[in-house]
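Whiteboard transcription, Tuesday session. T.W. wrote the structure tokens on the left side:
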């Protein structure tokens, strides 16, 4: 019988430093058949572990279109993630998943898409953004609004430049505190509203970042006229099983690990009313 809790060994193929505390790991399953067949959707996460240290949910940041490997962007915040930052290429890491629901993709074809991220909130959205760019002509205008505390803390710096070159796509960056080389906007991500044409009509917004940033961005989107059913956010909760068994991640009657982590603001409002 299949045991859902047994993780699959994978090898760290390469590691890219994003900032002083954040790295992106490219990993490949040891089992070649699994590496070739493993599929997931943008917004899903995996439970990553190191033997004898622990396990934590981490969003898959690679696009499902890039087959044969997975990428995870990890900020060193605690025991496990700090140990992961000590890994070197060819070291072993363990993966189970993919878990959770995903961002709406097919349903938003033809619409204008707004991606609003703060700090380490860009990694989960990156999977979706690159999937959208893979089928660029099937979507409307795309705007990416991304903020970090300092220029160093912006993830995927080279990729952000590439996205800026894509047809009908705007990428706007901001930092809370500039350094001497920073020529862009300074201020929280909502200050970008003055620099970009955001219209709610038929648009869909995806928001990912720290809770305080999500709160202010959602308010700004609602004030701009977005319906709460067209605003999607991802929630972080402490998780253990990742598969709806342990009850660690519930909000009211829902489990973030299986009913989320992606929720529309409309769904969340309903959940909090019922809770
Ligand atoms: C769906 C999902 C996707 C995620 N994706 C990513 C990702 O892509 N990249 C990423 O870097 N992280 C991601 N996270 C967050 C990551 O899983 C956590 O930060 C995880 O706890 C790190 O494990 P750790 O052992 O290194 O740190 P921990 O020891 O768990 O500590 C992490 C931080 O949380 C605090 N903390 C610990 N326990 C609690 C508690 N019970 N209540 C409140 N605070 C506590 C600690 O003080 C510390 O500041 C995701 C989380 C979820 C739920
Ligand atoms: S993490 Fe166990 S029920 Fe969600």
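and on the right, the sequence the group agreed on:
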């Amino acid at each position: 019988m299949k045991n859902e809790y047994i993780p699959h060994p994978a090898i760290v193929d390469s590691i890219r430093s994003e900032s002083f505390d954040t790295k992106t790991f490219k990993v490949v399953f040891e089992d070649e058949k699994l590496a070739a067949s493993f599929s997931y959707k943008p917004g899903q996460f995996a439970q990553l572990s190191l033997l004898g240290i622990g396990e934590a949910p981490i969003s898959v940041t690679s696009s499902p279109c890039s087959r044969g490997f997975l990428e995870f962007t990890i900020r060193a915040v605690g025991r496990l993630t700090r140990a992961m930052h000590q890994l070197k290429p060819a070291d072993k890491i363990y993966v189970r998943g993919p878990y959770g629901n995903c961002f709406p993709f097919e349903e938003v074809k033809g619409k204008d898409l707004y991606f609003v991220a703060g700090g380490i909130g860009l990694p989960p959205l990156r999977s979706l953004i690159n999937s959208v760019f893979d089928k660029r002509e099937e979507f409307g205008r795309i705007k990416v609004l991304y903020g970090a505390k300092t220029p160093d803390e912006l993830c995927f710096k080279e990729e952000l430049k590439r996205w800026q070159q894509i047809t009908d796509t705007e990428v706007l960056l901001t930092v809370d505190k500039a350094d001497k080389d920073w020529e862009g906007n300074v201020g929280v991500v909502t200050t970008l509203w003055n620099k970009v044409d955001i219209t709610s009509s038929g648009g869909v917004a995806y928001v990912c970042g720290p809770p305080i940033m999500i709160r202010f961005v959602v308010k700004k989107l609602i004030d701009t006229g977005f319906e709460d059913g067209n605003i999607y956010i991802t929630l972080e909760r402490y998780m253990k099983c990742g598969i709806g068994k342990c009850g660690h991640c519930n909000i009211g009657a829902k489990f973030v690990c299986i009913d989320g982590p992606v929720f529309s603001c409309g769904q969340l409002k309903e959940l909090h009313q019922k809770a």
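Someone added at the bottom: The two ends are 36 Å apart (CA to CA).
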